[in-house]
Specification:
alpha+beta, 4-stranded antiparallel β-sheet, 25% helix, elongated, Ribosomal_Su5_D2-typ_SF, ExoRNase_PH_dom1, Ribosomal RNA-processing protein 42, Exosome_comp_Rrp42_subfam, cytoplasm
């Protein structure tokens, strides 16, 4: 990130972070792995299927990072078995939020979020039928970024919004196709169908309207071509069963191989390297490592130490979220 502070200020922040003291004390009195107060609010938008607001506060009321995230569900016609479901993220920085920043990072953060949360589309819970799947649109609006560490705040809000998201219950509906030379296999036909079954078989070769989610001992080769909503009330939907696989994301900054979390804007501007780490299963597995804004290479030993320290933080953070 382009420095927005003077040389003297940069030296002051750098000296405090790279101090040989253990642990080093930062300019605001925090230790390297300390977060500032975080306020996380869920269900902030009734128009979304899942929403949250995350605020990173400082001692000044005018300096904070404030993010609102909303998740919307839509149905898309796509072959889930081939393409999976789609998770599409977008990040927006209104003009008021850009005042404190040297450039607009919206496009960059959008690409990061798509890399981190895109793999969740492989969850079978997002499959509706053989031809339809849920699409989750994740929209993040950064109201203020003056306290820095916008990436972590965005991802905390996304995590909470996804954990609260509810999928409407659906039932697969399809048609059992039969060959003229074959003997029809006994099946269960929906009695509410308005089409007489005998004439339906004679004219179309289609035996009847089936509910494929009903258990059957006979093996069928048919597929569900359509679906219906069983309950349109979002409050009665199913929460995602993959909560442990929703990434916990933390950003670790480096100065002279010294690691620290929750960087202020001033600390971000003097960092020699920055790593965005995404962990799953309560910090037990690292799912993504993204280097951004690096001024030098990161050696393997240092990278391994960063991942190990990040896993501890992610494990603790997952308990709070």
């Amino acid at each position: 990130m382009t420095s927005m502070i003077s040389t003297a200020e940069a030296s002051f922040f750098s000296d405090s972070l790279s101090s040989l003291d253990t642990p080093s004390i930062r300019a605001d009195g925090r230790t390297p792995f300390s977060y500032r107060p975080i306020n996380l609010i869920e269900d902030v938008s009734v128009q979304c299927n899942g929403s949250a607001r995350c605020q990173l506060r400082t001692s000044s009321e005018n300096i904070l990072t404030d993010v609102i995230v909303g998740c919307k569900l839509e149905v898309e016609q796509r072959d889930f078995d081939i393409h999976g479901a789609k998770i599409e993220c977008s990040v927006d920085f209104p003009p008021a939020a850009l005042i404190a920043l040297p450039y607009d990072p919206a496009q960059l953060y959008t690409s990061y979020l798509n890399m981190i949360y895109g793999p969740l589309g492989s969850s079978k819970q997002l499959r509706i039928s053989s031809t339809h799947a849920w699409v989750i649109y994740i929209d993040a609006v950064v109201i203020s970024a003056s306290a820095g560490n916008a990436m972590d705040v965005i991802c905390m809000a996304v995590h909470k919004a996804l954990c609260n998201l509810k999928l409407p219950k659906t039932a697969e509906v399809g048609y059992q196709r039969t060959k003229a030379t074959d003997t029809a296999v006994p099946i269960e036909v929906e009695t509410s169908s308005s089409v007489p079954n005998d004439s339906m078989v004679a004219e179309t070769g289609i035996q009847g309207l089936l509910w494929h989610n009903r258990p059957s001992k006979t093996k069928s080769s048919s597929q569900a071509y359509d679906f219906e909503l069983k309950d349109t009330d979002a409050e009665h939907g199913d929460q995602l069963s993959i909560k442990d696989f929703i990434p916990i994301v933390i950003t670790i900054n480096l100065i002279d191989q010294k690691m620290f979390l929750d960087a202020t804007l001033e600390e971000e501007s003097i960092s020699s390297n920055k790593l965005i780490l995404a962990y799953t299963e309560v910090g037990k597995k690292v799912a993504n490592v993204i280097q951004t804004g690096g001024k030098s290479e990161i050696g393997f030993d240092l990278l391994r130490s960063v991942i190990r320290e990040g896993a501890k933080v992610a494990g603790d953070l997952s308990k709070q979220l």
